[in-house]
Amino acid sequence: MSTSLRHGPLHDAHLRLGAKLAPFGGWEMPISYSDGGVVAEHTAVREAVGVFDVSHLGKTRVSGPRAAEFVNSCLTADLGRIGPGQAQYTMCCADDGGVLDDLIT
Fold it and tell me: Which residue, among 11, 7, 45, has the nearest Cα to 26 in the 3D structure?
């Protein structure tokens, strides 16, 4: 039985840039590039810039009159510090403070 893998918006660019692709959670994702290997990729991100396609990550919508307050109470970062078109990396915590998951808000 064949399963089709999903592709993110950067898929064609990954192919043009020589990415080695592998299946991950139903998506075909880049895992490395042919130019210089992992050390060169690491150095490029540290010294210049890196782009990470998050299309494969789960998404959720919370709505209602106190939705922002509820979501903010579950996170380690303050939603009030970001505006439209911005994002932040944070953790979602259980009532006891344990980390349930990391996410981008």
Answer: 7
Give the CATH number of the domain where residue 15 resides: 3.30.1360.120
If asked whether residues 50 and 78 sit together in one domain, one would say no
pLDDT, one tens digit per residue, over 71-80 is 999 999 998 9
Say which amino acid occupies 53: D
Q: How many helices (H) and strands (E) does the chain have?
A: 3, 4
CB 84 within 8 A of CB 101: no
In 3-state terms, what secondary structure has residue 19?
strand
Q: State the CB neighbour count (10 A cutoff) for residue 11.
A: 19
Which residues are CB-neighbours of 31 under 8 A, at least 6 positions away? 19, 20, 21, 22
Prediction pTM value: 0.63
**CB count in 10 Å sphere of residue 30:** 20
DSSP-derived 3-state class of residue 12? helix
